[in-house]
Amino acid sequence: MDLLEYQGKQLLAAHGVAVPRGAVADTVEAAVARATEIGYPVVVKAQVQVGGRGKAGGIKVATTDEEVRTSAQSMLHRPLKGHLVRRVWVEEASAPAREYYASITFDRSAKLHLAMLSARGGIDIEEVAADDPDAIARLHIDPLDGLSPAAVRDLVQRARLDPEVTDEVSAIMLALWVAYRDGDTELVEVNPLAVTAEGRVVALDAKVTLDDSAAFRHPDWDGWRADEVLDERERRARDKGLNYIGLAGTVGIIGNGAGLVMSTLDVVNEVGGTAANFLDIGGGAGADVVAAALDVVNSDQNVRAILVNIFGGITRGDLVAQGIVEALERVELHSPIVVRLDGTNAEEGRAILAGHASERLLSEPTMLAAARRAVAVAGGAAT
Amino acid sequence: MILLDEHTRVVVQGLTGSQGRFHGLRNRAYGTQVVAGVTPGKGGADVEGIPVFDTVAAAVAETGADASLIFVPPRGAAGAVVEAADAGVSLIVCITEGIPLHDEVRVNSYLRRTHPDVTMIGPNCPGIISPGRANIGITPVEIAQAGGPVGVVSRSGTLTYQALFELTRLGIGQTTCVGIGGDPVPGTGFVGCLRRFQADPETRAVILIGEIGGSDEEEAADFIAGEMTKPVVAYVAGVTAPTGRRMGHAGAIVSGRAGGARSKIEALRRAGVEVVETPTEVGDRMAQVVADLPPAG
What we know:
By secondary structure, chain A is α+β, with helices and mostly antiparallel strands. Chain A has helices spanning 5-14, 28-38, 65-75, 125-131, 149-158, 166-182, 221-226, 232-239, 258-270, 287-298, 317-330, 346-354, 367-377; strands at residues 22-25, 42-46, 59-62, 79-80, 83-84, 88-92, 96-107, 112-118, 136-141, 185-196, 201-203, 207-210, 243-246, 251-255, 277-280, 305-312, 337-343, 361-363. In chain A, helix 2 (28-38) crosses helix 3, helix 5 (149-158) crosses helix 6 (166-182) and helix 10 crosses helix 11 (317-330). Chain A is elongated, with a radius of gyration of 25 Å. The two termini of chain A are 40 Å apart. Chain B is an alpha/beta fold. In chain B, the strands form two sheets. In chain B, strands 3-4-2-1-5-6-7 form a seven-stranded mixed sheet, with helices on both faces. A seven-stranded mixed sheet of chain B has the order 9-8-11-10-12-13-14, with helices on both faces. The relative contact order of chain B is 0.11.
């Protein structure tokens, strides 16, 4: 889960990183009130889980109540880069003398955590990385060793920051590491990490991604989760514990295993159709999960056919088939289902489906045939 | 055959749970030597004749187990891997899905540093099957065929089954099929498996199934170009996958251009790998490769 900026800043502040004074507001009048308390000038920032807000008009400086009102009105309850803005964050404006880049994430190639620090922070950091990779100092962190003060100092020196902020930035990097590790995050990124005219080092933005697999040991995440901005289909799927990503096509897709589902999307595309979603029911799914998945896909108004592609390993074909049959009894499906079932207990599963076969419940022996059938039913290219 | 054969003696961590029991017994029914189970607090019990111990160390001492198969739920899985390695098994296969990232990284570092000779497969994987010899994990055995000559290595569980199914349908046997798992921190990656297949006299061609994310396919391409003489057929899932919401720049800075399906496909093709466009083509293409192999021996 991606945290909103203000949530990320709360996490960093709790670990001792300086952030600008600010407050969250979900109405225009509240934004004005918060701005008055903080004192002008302020920055009004749309809270959405997406990068590139500034360029899209989601970050505005205001020096009067009227400007806050105009800015907040232009953001609240409107979409920004496809995401509905439900709140704004109002914070004291900073005039950075320098903008650095700081992050900690996981490096899959090295199988270690990676801290990165650069004197050339700001919106063009990816271009800096491509054009002048040496401008970004890197330090791999082995979790068994942690991050030593000496290693951090070396990182800061290699990043060629202003020498007078070495101590402060070193302390911030250590704090980011603790926030990253103890917070069970996949990413902590501060861009820009600003040096103010007075020489203070402040996190002007915060991007934090939590590791959803660690949610079981972070009951405190529930509050943040409730604030996550999802579309209706995604919210429904989340409530049922399903791994779902909404797309814009007409063929609803349900499968077991991320690889198989991705591959199903590819094959549907290959035979001229468009996928309405990505939905992975995972390993070991039983009848209830399958019925829930069908319910979510069925709620998508664009769906004209539902393709269920199951290759059983830990997922048992007979349980999947039972789920489909149960769903047909419980939910009024708007679209026909095309099922392809193979693997563990597939024969038992196919027998269950055969007992309920109709124009609403079709079976195909192969993935390609099932994709073609589903695309034909959905009204796409048929062969 | 690599990693697993009929002599491998397996302890199942989590044998008394529903998944552990279902698949542990299926593995035994296939002929795998499932010699022990481990569930803390249930030592002394048995599961259809398989003795259960409180610890892996006790299971190893009593039964001579040299491989562990892990079905422990996410919150205990990292500890289970460490316990298995400390108990002296040389092969660990972790099926568990949903282990926190930080746990995976810590365990991976621990194994590399303390037990460099232990081979870890997974987590979040279907396991290993050497058809006709043994199966540890959740691969449905009906779709595998003994006798080689094809080795299979895959990041995706269900696409692994798809590949086995296609090969078997065409009458092509497999030496070993390894599901390395889809998590960000696999114990053994493509290169570790390809190196073993290259060294295995029974394996004469290899199927590689990749997916988007990370750079394991790109590293496999480098290895194939430099060190592999056996033909490789590959499929990479996710050409049309939604990119999702991306926060921040760190991921892009770390991975550069690697990670997308097209980049992986291009890297593999440059290394001389036959990359097919749909998973169902894997079998047909491999059938041609096998037909073109020179006579064995």
